[in-house]
Design brief:
The protein is α+β, with helices and mostly antiparallel strands and 359 residues long.
């Protein structure tokens, strides 16, 4: 039985196309992917992302614990700061990528991928040697992503705190639309700026209504446009671009791995950094007609298979087909000509730097 977010009845009333996703019934689109995508890039949109799992970790050694199970440096976090990180298995494979919120020195919130919610929760608990309180609070919460260049103007109407004082990857807990204890976080997955709003389940419909009452520009946005927006930025999607069989070094995420500390999987990562890896994640743009899809073969100029596509789409902002995939390290240089095998046809593409989309 698929779960429903606190916004489910609103999606139904808006005739959203609802599909099962990570155990939830989620809106994939409302008015259409291209319209929704461009509206976020140009103006603003709101996504229901309440399926993302929220895990609270509390106790005197919460920071010490997170330092061990995540790759980024927890000591760099101050109260009200957010960090992008990942958790690795002993082989250096990515269990999940996640956001770490430091509420105070003994209380942290992890936001992990919906598809990994149970796996992550069980794994985190299995490593709990500090008698910490570890709670999955997702069922009691709602989560909205308000994204786009006009986001701040709208949100400022609903809160007395100055949003200019919440820098990127920072948050404040404040009153919003008359609702207490809302986490207002300057984060997002679109590359067009905006905020993520964590609220009590019971406050969710009120906050949604208040957003729409205060803007005639706001549109509801589905998960399909969220995917095209993230791909234009070259952001990794768990299950596609990163898995337990890929390491952060292969995924070009070395910047969230800090070797100045001990963490699970560190020995493998050190070996990869010193000896190199055999495959690496690249971005590419098609130079001929076609759309790359997950698991399509990537070929070199000699028509040899050198890798596989992990994500691909037609980019609404660029009006070109773009994608990401893993290829042999020797064939991964920027501007290299490659071919994507689409229905037995070799379609020419070029390896490019990410993000694909620049403001």
């Amino acid at each position: 039985m698929d779960k429903k977010t606190p916004f489910y009845s609103i999606h139904k009333s808006l005739n959203a196309k609802l599909v099962p996703f990570a155990g939830y019934l989620m809106p994939i689109q409302y008015k259409g992917v291209i319209f929704e995508h461009n509206h976020v890039r140009d103006k603003l949109g709101v996504f229901d992302v309440s399926h993302m799992s929220q895990i609270m970790i509390e106790g005197d050694n919460a920071g010490v614990f997170l330092q061990r199970i995540t790759t980024n440096d927890i000591l760099k976090l101050k109260d009200g700061k957010v960090q992008y990180s990942c958790m690795l298995n002993e082989d250096g494979g990515i269990i999940d990528d996640l956001l770490v919120y430091r509420i105070n020195s003994t209380l942290y919130m992890l936001v992990v991928n919906a598809s990994n919610a149970m796996k992550d929760f069980d794994w985190i608990n299995s490593k709990n040697d500090f008698n910490l309180s570890i709670l999955d609070v997702t069922p009691q919460r709602g989560l909205l992503a308000l994204q786009g260049p006009k986001s701040k103007d709208l949100l400022q109407k609903l809160t007395s705190i100055d949003l200019n004082h919440i820098p990127y990857y920072s948050f404040k807990i404040a009153k919003l639309a008359g609702c207490d204890d809302v986490i207002i976080s300057n984060t997002g997955y679109t590359g067009s700026g905006g905020f993520e709003l964590y609220m009590k389940h019971t406050d969710a419909p009120n906050i949604w209504e208040s957003l729409f009452q205060n803007s005639n520009l706001l549109e509801p946005i589905g998960l399909a446009a969220r995917d095209t927006l993230r791909l234009e930025m070259g952001y990794c999607l768990y299950g596609n671009d990163i898995t337990e069989n890929t390491s952060p070094i292969e995924a070009q995420l070395a910047w969230i791995v800090k070797l100045t500390k001990e963490f699970i999987g560190k020995k493998v990562i050190e070996k990869q950094l010193s000896e190199g890896v055999s495959k690496v994640l690249i971005g590419f743009i098609l130079e001929e007609r076609g759309i790359p899809r997950k698991d399509y073969d990537i070929l070199n100029i000699k028509a040899e298979i050198i890798g596989k596509v992990t994500s691909g789409t037609m980019s609404p902002s660029l009006n070109k087909a773009i994608g990401m995939g893993y290829v042999n390290i020797e064939e991964s240089s920027l501007e290299t000509t490659i071919f994507i095998l689409i229905r037995d046809k070799k379609v020419r593409a070029r390896i490019v730097k990410r993000p694909f989309y620049e403001k």
